[in-house]
Amino acid sequence: MADDWLFMSAGDLGRAIGAGRIDPVDLAGAFFDAIKAHPLQTRIYARLTEARAMAEAEAAAMRAKAGTRRGPLDGVPVSWKDLYDTAGVTTEAGSALLAGRVPEQDAEVLQNATAMGLVGLGKTHMSELAFSGLGLNPVTETPPCVHDPEAVSGGSSSGAATSVAFGLAPGAIGSDTGGSVRIPAAWNDLVGLKTTSGRLSLKGVVPLAASFDTVGPLCRNVEDCALFLAALEGRARAADLEGITLRGRRFLILENGLRDVREGPMAGFERAVARLTDAGAEIDRAHLEQVDEAMAMSAILYTTEAYATWREEIEARPHLMFDQILERFRAGGTFSGADFVAAWQKLERLRGEYRRLTAGFDAVILPAAANLPPKADRLLSDHDYYVTENLLTLNNTRIGNLMGGAGITLPTGVPSAGIMFLGTPMGEERLLRIAAAAEAALT
User: Which residues form the Amidase domain (predicted)?
Assistant: First the structure.
């Protein structure tokens, strides 16, 4: 029976706890047993928080028996990307620059989730300082793709995705600055939610580029994303996903995101679009110049802020960093303050134009990633390949961050090929409802 729990959705586990069919202590124990027995667990988890988790599970069990559960996920385990501060627990963001860093208090979203009864299993590996979409990290560990242990799992929430995909957590909390929730979710056939910048607190979250950093869950289904979003905000009530259909819904295929898409991801996207159409959705297509203009400023916007944030630490000990990540950070030193401010002013104008042009659609859709997970060995040995694959990986997801709205990726039925839905700023509940209907059509 315990083995069955490992691949149940978080929502189903929560309902079973509420019905008295699963004890939270037994559930947490089952996950720790599975983690410790898994041959790849050290490539997925940076460290476990077993003592804390078992105490949280015992408290959840007492609440379940007393009929005082705090919410639908009370007693359900979760993994945390290793950039969320955890009181008394090493939090290193995948970087030797932060080796031995032990925060004194939990990140605010971790506090909220704990208050709602979630049980923290441990901290998962990630790309160094979250600055890569590939998930390759020779400094700490490189988590494996669920379909190929020799391939990367996507980044930067690499261990977050694999903890769920391998049945070592019911859900995971990652972060997304340019695609870091949606890429690993897509490559491991999960659902990944990018929230709107400012929707969830970044207090106690190790930053990359705070103007774009967002908190988001990686889950088995859309319902779980809705449940985790509510828990991260300290709410018991999640978005209502009942009664929504795709009939009459309008989606815009953003043709900017179809360039350079390889065969596997394109096959998954076309299959998904056909299913959406069969379910009654209306599909339009357009190429938006505003997106191209925004993408052309990505290097200025991302690398300048990232390097400004980390320059002091980086230049004090650059030899501790993976050379590809170091090179990417240092690129931010080539732009002036005037370049950066002008780019942000232009981006705000482009965002307004984009929202006006897409206002008549329920969501913008495109392949989550243009490529499939590359082999880790080749990425390590071929500099040019690393650069081109990393940029291609993030090409579509960055559109969502640059345009400033919520986004979600769903599996398409083709391994490691996701379809991404982009919505409006602070429109997570509406986007989750649309995604729930799309999920039903795709499965």
Answer: 30-432
